[in-house]
Amino acid sequence: xxxxxxxxxxxxxxxxxxxxxxxxxxxxxxYVNEATVxxxxxxxxxxxxxxxxxxxxxxxxxVKDKVD
Length: 68
Prior knowledge:
Layout: H1 7-18, H2 23-30, H3 34-47, H4 53-67
């Protein structure tokens, strides 16, 4: 099971990207995989925040359907 990144680390990745660092440079700097940096940047570009809102909503709906 993978460890989730802290919200703070996700925001630091976004700030580094805004400063002009490449995803490879950010990955080395933050000691995370380049794919992780790519995922965080993609989520930020799509939703404007560092948490994937779609995942929570889908799971929430599934739980509601099962409980009711």
